[in-house]
Amino acid sequence: MAKNIILEAIAREMQTGVLVLDPALRALYANPFFVNSFPVKDGVEGRMLEEIIENTALASTVRSFLAGRYSSPESIEISEGGRFFNVRLVPLIDRNDFRLLLFLQDITEEKRVETIKKDFVANVSHELRTPLASIKGYSETLLDGGMDDKNTLKEFLRVIDRHATRMSRLIDDLLTLSKLESHQMEIVSEPVDIKEILLSTKTGFEKQARDKGIKITSRIPEGLPKALGDRDRLEQVVVNLLDNAIKYTPPGGGVSLSACASKGDIRVDVKDTGIGFPPSDIPRIFERFYRVDKARSRDLGGTGLGLAIVKHIIQGHNGRLHVESAPGKGSTFSFSLKACN
């Protein structure tokens, strides 16, 4: 009796679905995790397997398993309602009494991570292949006699240098992102002068903006409190946001930097009058390699990792990110940090 109570308690607390079937594939027992994963009106017990899980591959596997009266466990992977499960079939034979135990482990998160890894490798390969192909093509042309024309030589070397710089930036961003995601990059919290970061970054981008015909303005109040954070990392955030704002703003447009203090926080806004993007893209804008306009972003020299780095740095500061944008109306990227007392 005590043994049954212990087994019932274990099954009840398991974070794996447990379903017990009789030889006719009728449910005899289901633990709470299974019931929550596969809710059935009026309960699971007494229902046929197909009524509980409408998966033909699982039903076929279970029937074949029963027909063969296998004595060793067997596994199958199924997809149900956008979730993935690894189902392990375990026979339970007690004299002439036969039951089948199904253990269902939710592997949705593992599948998601696996997909992210595959996409990441594919994206990195693609991002490196394009500049490498250009470097190889131009260098082969020079080796085949293109060096005889000095004007051609200079232009080709300029192109090779540009693509090499792009690859270098991509590798640097990948290393930074890897350290941030694995928490190997230490974030030192100390009083940081946000006004100084904004104004010095603005000064550094003024030539780039002026060459493109874009005006950068700032609106930062006197006496702005210092924020608690890592100066180098926060400067990286502002650089990435300001660089993007200038890249995606056409000539004649404007970019503004502003900051304010409110309710113990410091909020920074980087606003542009650029091309913008649909609000539907906002949930994905901070994903690695996600680009609203892929061709345009590559033409402008973007690595597709800048906003992912911004997200991880702000998260590492326990801060908040906010984005507003609309096609043709520009974008506003904002982040908030704790102010120093």
Written account of the structure:
There is one protein chain. With about 350 residues, the protein is of the alpha+beta class. It folds into 3 domains: about 1-105, Beta-Lactamase (2-Layer Sandwich); about 110-185, Orthogonal Bundle (Helix Hairpins); about 190-340, Histidine kinase-like ATPase, C-terminal domain (Heat Shock Protein 90, 2-Layer Sandwich), CATH 3.30.565. The protein is about 45% helix and about 25% strand. It is built from 10 helices and 12 strands. The chain has helices at about 1-15, 30-35, 50, 55-70, 110-145, 150-180, 195-210, 230-245, 295-300, 305-315, and strands spanning about 15-20, 25-30, 75-80, 85-95, 95-105, 190, 215-220, 225-230, 255-260, 265-270, 320-325, 330-340. Strands 2-1-5-4-3 form a 5-stranded antiparallel β-sheet, sandwiched between helices. Strand 1 and strand 2 form a beta hairpin. Helix 5 (about 110-145) runs antiparallel to helix 6, helix 7 packs parallel to helix 8 and helix 8 (about 230-245) packs antiparallel against helix 10 (about 305-315). The longest helix is centred in the middle third of the chain and has 36 residues, at about 110-145. The chain is elongated and about 85 Å long. The chain starts with a helix and ends with a strand. About 25% of the residues are buried.
